[in-house]
């Protein structure tokens, strides 16, 4: 029996167990006495848990065993896989169902079993997500160490030149390539800075407008619209940046005698900023709403105008939270890939001029891994090193942001 | 009743009304919260507003400095004059009005700023002082008048939210005084405080009476009897009875007043 039918049979058995357990419990309850007691469906759940948990445990063990199982010889292993394992599993399930159904009586403490099962499922879910993160970090770490075997740390972190492509052509002079990551991080920073210069004022002001000025009706209509902006796929922003905004900036530039390339840092940054506006505005909105009404009343009561109240009381009170929101937004901007891939280009220029083309860490990771790869070349491994550094940066930003936001939460309690 | 009868109430002086409300009705959307309320507030006296929860005391108080303007959907009808001038007239700047009619709230609500900045908030936004020395002066005298200076003068830069509840409420009073109002509205200023802090605030209110007109909403009949000269009893959006505090508490004319002050309903 293969895996899927096995699972289906298991589920069917447990559903039956649930139904039968409920019925049996129902038959045992004395419906003339009205008092708090364990409800029949809870007995059903109890039976289902006993029918499900032990076989699932077996299946997980089997998964681990398979790793070594093949050393038994293929014929034996195949027999175990197709006959022994399913039969044992179903027997265990049937045994669980049978024993638990026998145990049903009104005094049985089934709630505790159900709570334990729920607790187990929750723990398992959170453990899995944490383990995934740890797994990703370790795989990054492993490849990164390999990379630094080939390319010295100092070149990566201090080098001003990035041209990994040359590494592919062995006939070329200097075929080892140049892996100085500084232009990439500088480009990332430049684009992030531009994005923040667009997103922070616009997002913050729209949040202030929404919370302090707009009527409830306007808010009910416009807020969802702002949030739709957050749902636009970034690839759409990407070609908007590449085909519309970039060209527009180039045309405006040439009209006033400035030399703007169509893949400018400015275009990518501005569009990325637009993408982040809803992120900042909806976070700031929550934070500003959390400023107690009594502070507003206090300020108005002293004869402050609305804008004085916003500037002198509400924003200062909300500031730590807003800083947290901005840091979260920065880490999003740093990690954003699609817009910059489409709008910023691959030229690793080291420049602070937003009208020139720059490239970012994420763009280069894409560039390094697109196409056929040798997995142990310095070029491929460089992607892992970049990713790890990026990960460390955004992780620290998020941690700082969370600490800041949490501190701020405590203040009103 | 005995307990209330033997408290001494300050002499009632015959003074002119500084605020006068005529036929004031207030609506929140379609819901009417006040119905044709008439009340004269005598200058330099303490007037207390009493009545069961939800009867419109706060609503009335908030009409007097137009704080209701900040509530969406709130509509005020009727006529309220301050020194003979209609405060709802179109040419009246409600911001200046609020500076003249200060307000202290039920829950102490100091800004999350330093003690100094809390008190300096009003003078700063209204540009009441020319330089730092003058501002210092205003801050210190306001704290002094609110009876808080002694406790905080070594830590003016500490945050205002770090004070005790009673100190915070006195800070809020100091903050209101710093704008140099003529009238102070207090909405249950002691309801979040313990008896000792309450006694301090009551003492303070009686001192302030010399220079300010005070209107106080309170749920404590003893408090109203102790500190006020005039009392208005609100019930279901109307003023049922208004008169000298002593008379109202010892010899109420209306059955509903009688019922409320003896605790038969509330
Ligand atoms: N912002 C508002 N929107 C709608 N209705 C309101 C609003 N504020 C007050 N009300 C209503 O107006 C009526 C009077 O309320 P108000 O707050 O003036 O009562 P109160 O006498 O101060 O009561 P309490 O002693 O409980 O403070 C109540 O029925 C209340 O539900
Ligand atoms: Mg009230």
UniProtKB/TrEMBL annotation, chain B:
Domain ABC transporter, chain residue ranges per copy: 19-261
Top-rank taxon, per record: Bacteria
Keyword Transport: yes
GO MF term set: ATP binding
InterPro entries reported in the protein's UniProt record: AAA+_ATPase, ABC_transporter-like_ATP-bd, ABC_transporter-like_CS, P-loop_NTPase, PstB-like
Keywords: ATP-binding, Nucleotide-binding, Phosphate transport, Transport
PANTHER family attached to this UniProt entry: ABC TRANSPORTER I FAMILY MEMBER 17
NCBIfam families, alphabetized: 3a0107s01c2
Name of the protein in its database record: Phosphate import ATP-binding protein PstB
Species whose genome carries this gene: Sneathiella chinensis
